[in-house]
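A common beginner's mistake is to predict each chain separately and then try to dock the pieces by hand. The better habit, illustrated here, is to supply every component at once so that their relative placement is modeled jointly.
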Amino acid sequence: MSLRDLWLRIRNTARDTSADAEFHAEIEEHVRLLAERYRGQGMTEEEASLAARRQFGNQTLLQEDRRAMKTIPAIESLLGDLIYAARTLRKNPGFAAAAAITLTLGIGANTAIFSICNAVLFKPLPFREPDRIVMLWERLATGALMTVAPANFVDWRNESRSFSEMAALNPNYSFILASQNEAARLAGAAVSSNFFSLLSIQFALGRNFLAEEDRPGHNDVAILSYRVWQERFGADREIIGRQINLDDKSYTVTGVLPADFEFGSRAADFQPRNQGVGGDQFLVNAAGDQFDIWVPIAFNTERLKRGTHPLRVIARLKPGVPLSEAQAELNVMATHLANQYPADNRDKGIGAVPLKEQATGAVRVALQMLLIAVGLVLLIGCANVANLFLSRAAARRSEMAVRVALGAGRGRIAQQLLTESLLLVGIAGGAGFSLALIGLAVLSPYLPADLLRAGGVRPDARILAFTAFISLASGILFGLGPLFGTARAQAGEWLKASNRVAGGAQSLLRNGLAVAQIAIALMLLIGTGLMVRSFVKLIHVAPGLRSEGILTARLSLPRSRYPDNHRIAVFERELLERLAGSRGTQSAGFTTYLPLSGSDNGWSFVIEGRPPLPTGIFNMAKYRPVSAGYFETLGIPLLRGRSFTRGDEREGSPWIAVINQSMAREYWGGKNPIGERLSFGSDTWRTVIGVVGDVRHEGLGGELKPEMYVPMEDAPNVEDGPTLVVRTTLDAGSAAAQLRELVLAIDRTMPVDRIETMDQLLSRSVAQPRFRTFVLAAFSILALVMASIGVYGVINYLVVQRTREFGIRMSMGATQTDVLRLVLRRAGALIGAGTCLGIAGAMLLVRFIDKLLFDTAPVDPLTFAAVPVVLAIVALTASYIPARRATRVDPMIALRYE
Amino acid sequence: MSKGRRGENTKSEVLQGTLDLMILKTLHAMGPLHGFGIARRLEQLSQEVLHLNEGTVYTSLLRMQDAGWIAAKWGASENNRKAKFYSITKAGSRQLAKETEDWERISRVIGRVLRLDGQN
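With all components supplied together, the output reads:
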C-alpha cells in the first residue's frame, strides 16, 4: 500500500459519507433499472423488485466490501467499538464512575510515587558516565564509614591504579560575603583542582581552577554557584577575573558553575552511609546548604594530617575496571597504610560506594517500599474493576449470546470488551496523571526536604510513559480477566443460561480476586501497623531536652573582626546580657553544635592516671563547646556537680569540662567522675566538674554517645559559627525579630540565619519516618476500603444470584438467622483465606522494611495479631450489608424472580 | 437458498479475475458504459451461460479503478438520469492486452490437455 493510498484510506475512514451515499445511489439505480426490465417482462411490481434484488446480490456486503477496500477496517471497527463503549459507559454511570474513580486513584497514586522515585532514584546523575564515579570512605572495623584524612587521600591518589582520577572536597567552609547593604554567610567548599573536571562540568562562565592554583599561596581564587552569581552579582558577565571580598580577604573569580549543578545540594550526598547498620534511617541530616563559593583545597604540609577527617573523596573508575576489582585494590592499599601508620590507620579499611547509591542510600529503601505498596493498591483497584466487569459481563450475557449467534467471532467480542476497558483506563490514566501532578504540586512543600534533589519533581516523558504503561497494563488485566470467564462459554449455553447462575470458572475467578484483595490489603496494613508502631516509639523517645519555647539562630562572626575566642566571647557576653534584659527572654546560651541540626564533632581523649591504650585505639567522645546558660536554656538536667557559670569563662580560670551520663557510665562505671581529669586535642588537663543528662543529638532514633562539654571561650578547633539558643515566652516570629534587632545593634553587618524553633528542628528530625509512615498509612487505608468494596461486591453478587434459592429455603422454614449465617459463612471463608495468605505474605515481606523500623521487631506479635482482626471486622461488616438483604427476601417474590 | 451449487449446473460461476478481463474487454470494445450497461452487455455476450450476481460487477469496477485500469465519470444515462460512466484507461488497455495473451495461452494449453485421448 503506497503512502498516498494509506493517507486516502485514513481520510476516508474519517469522513466518507458522501462517497458512501454516491455508491449507494449508483447501486440503487442499477437495481431499479433491473426491476424495470423485469416489469417489462410482465412481472408484478413486487416480483420485479424481488427478482432484481436477487439478480443483484447482497447490497450491504458490497457496500462493506467497498468500505474495506477504501478505508482501514480495523480502525473503523475500533471507532465503532469506541463509540459503542462510550455509549455503554454513559448508560451505566454508576459502574463507569466507580471503575474510573478506583482506577484514577490507583494510577494517580502510582504516578505520584513514581515521579518522586524518578526524580530521586532513577534519573541518572547529571555527570559524564555517572556510573563510573564512586565515593571513597575510610572504613572502621565495625563496617561504619567515615570521612577521610587528607594524608590518606593523597596516598590513595598516588598509589591506586584502578581510578583514572581522584578528587577531594572539604565541605566545612563558610564565607561571609560583604556587600554594601548586608553581609551574608555563604556555604562554601574547598576542592582539589580536578574535582569539576572529574565530574565533567561545563562552566556557565569562565573556567575551572588550574593545577597551579591548587597550591598554598596561589589559591586566592574562587568559583561561584549559579545562584549566588544571579542573586549577589546580578548575573554580571564581567565577573570573571574580578576580585570579590570573602571574609575580608580578596579572591579572584575564575568561573561560574552551571545552573543545574547539584553536587552536595543535599546533605545525604556527604554523610558516610552506614550500610548494614541501618541506623541512619533515623538520623538527622545536616540542613542542606547549597555550596555557593568554591575555593581550591591547596593542601600544605601542615594540613596533610591523618588524625583529622574533613574530606569527602570522589573517584572515577578507569574504563573496564569493575568496582569489585577496584575494591580489592583498595583493600590491599588499606592494609599497607595500616601497617605504615598504625597510630591513625589501625584496623581501617577503605570503602567504595557508587555515587548514585551514596546520593540515594537513605531514602532508597523507603521509596522502594512505597512504590511496591502503591503498586499493590493499584492491583487491588484492578481486582475491583475486574469484579465490576465480571458482574456486568454476567448481566450482558444475553447481549453477547446474540452477538455470537449472529456470527461475531470470539476475537471480535474480545476486541470490543478490551476497547471498553481501554477507554476506561484512557480516561482514568489521563485523570490520574493530572491528579498526580496536582497532588505533587500541592504536597511538595510538605515533602521532606532532603528527599528531593535540587531539580525537584517535574513531569517528563518517562513519567508519562510510566502512566501510560500502568494504565494499559491495568486495562488489559481487568479487561481480559472477565473474558476468560465469559468467552469460554458457547453461544448456546449463554442463551440458555440467560442470567441465572455464573459459570464455575467465573465464580472461582471472582472469589480468587476477593481473596487476593484481602491478602494484599492485609500485607499493606501489617506494614503500616509496623511503621506506625515504630513511628510512635520514635517520637516518644525523650530527646533529653525541653524543646518548647526554644528559639535557635546561627550567627556568623567574620574571622577578620573576631580573630580569636576572646573577641568572640566578648561579643557573646554582650549579646547574652542584652537578651537577658529583653522582653520575654527567660534564659539564653550558645553552643557550637546544635542538637538535631545535623552538625557534630568528636574528639579522642585520654583520662588521667589510666594505662595508655594500644596504638590506634582511642576513647572517643562528642565535643560540645557551650556557654554558661546553655544547659538551663535547653532544659538539659544537671545530674551531678555543677554546670558552667559566667566565672568559668574568665581568663585564668581553671580548665574544666562537663560530661554526659553516657560518658560517665562508659568510662567511670559506677564511680563519681567529678574531680577526675581528662585531656583531648592539646596537653591541657581538664577537670570534670559536672554530669548532665544525655541528649539525642543525632536524632530521636540515634544512639546515645559519650559527650563532653567545655566552656566556649577555651574551646579549640571550632569549625562552625556559634548557634544561639533562647528560651522565650514570645511567639517565634516576634522573638526572631527581637533577636535580629539585638544582634544588629551590636554588630551591624553580622549575618543571622537558620532561625528556627527547637520544635521545628525536632519535627524535621522525624520528617522522613513521618512521611513514609503517613503515605504508607494512606495507601493502606485506600487498600482496605477497596478490598472491603471488593468483598462487598462478591457477596452482593452471590446474594443476587441466589435470591431464588434463599426464597425457597425460607419458604421451607429456614429462619433469617440461617440465611444470614449461610451468607456470612461464605464471606468468612473468603476473608479467612485472604487473611491467612496475607499473614504469610507479610511474614515474607516485612524483612525488607526491617531497616525502616525503629525499636520494633518485623514480626511484631501485637501487629500481626491486631491488624488481621481489624481487617476481618471491616470486611465482615462490608459483607453484612448484602447478607442482611438476603434475609429480607420475600419468598413469593423470590420465586417469581427473573 | 445458497448461490451456485445447483444440481444441474448449466451456469458457471464467474472466476475471479476473468470478470475483470471481461469487463475490460467490454469497455475496450464498447466505449464508456455505466454499471447497468456493463451487466447487460455481459449477460448478452455470455448467452445466459454465466451466472452473475450483478453486484460483483461493482466490486470488480472498484478494484480496477483502484488499480488505475479504468476511470469513472458522472454523466447522464439514456433516459437522462445521473449515472456513473466507466471507461478504459491506457494502463487498462495494456493490462487487457497482457491478460488476453495470458488467457489465450492458458486456454490453448488446457484445450490441448483436454483433447488428449487415452494412450493405450
